From TrEMBL:
<protein>
    <recommendedName>
        <fullName>Lipoprotein</fullName>
    </recommendedName>
</protein>
Length: 91
């Protein structure tokens, strides 16, 4: 008991928090806007877009600084497919 309390005290004093690591998520979308809307909904946070180029948007969430990226490409059938990748709070 004393040993575990000592370890917790060391973690607190060293500035380590006991939050779980972020989880990675990915999904395909039909547009960049749908990708951004879904990331904002899934994380429950406002998005800060840091970079935007034609067919590509990325940045981080406002509250927790979780990263996201929505990137479009044209398939062999000449259809737009957007790949979304983002982090969400671990459980």
């Amino acid at each position: 008991m004393k040993k575990s309390a000592f370890i917790v005290l060391l973690l607190v004093l060293s500035g380590c928090d006991l939050k779980p690591a972020p989880e990675n998520a990915a999904r395909s979308f039909s547009s960049i806007q749908r990708c951004l809307d879904h990331v904002a909904f899934d994380t429950g946070e406002r998005l800060n877009i840091t970079n935007r180029t034609p067919g590509r948007v990325w940045g981080e969430t406002a509250e927790h600084g979780l990263s996201f990226r929505c990137e479009g490409r044209v398939t062999e059938l000449k259809q737009l497919e957007v790949e979304g990748r983002w982090q969400r709070q671990g459980k």
